[in-house]
Write a structure and sequence with these properties.
- Helices cover 0% and strands 51% of the residues.
- By secondary structure, it is mainly beta.
- It has one domain: Jelly Rolls (Sandwich), CATH 2.60.120.
- β4 and β5 form a beta hairpin.
- It starts with a strand and ends with a strand.
């Protein structure tokens, strides 16, 4: 059963991992500040890190739909989000 989840409380340039065991859809990055922030979405494998989106600028008080209805399955790999601003964004996503 799909569940909507929210990630908050980011530390600068420190990845937070999504619960993505069954796959993820509908990733939204929401800027909660009055200035622009940069965010990245990536996949960490046992051997490397690959970015789906790197250093995307999100305007103040706006959001970006990164994965609009598409399914991203990462098997045993870890899907993460990181930002250049502490507590700058909220990540809303659907975990399957």
């Amino acid at each position: 059963m799909a569940k909507t989840k929210v990630l908050t409380g980011f530390t600068v340039n420190t990845p937070q991992y999504l619960n993505n065991r069954g796959g993820v859809t509908n990733i939204v990055l929401a800027n909660q500040t009055n200035s622009n922030v940069k965010a990245s979405v990536g996949i960490a494998t046992p051997r490397a890190t690959a970015y789906y989106i790197k250093d995307l600028t999100i305007d103040a008080n706006t959001s970006v739909d990164v994965l609009d209805g598409s399914l991203l399955q990462t098997e045993a790999n870890k899907l993460f989000v990181e930002t250049d601003t502490a507590n700058g964004i909220h990540v809303i996503y659907t975990a399957l």
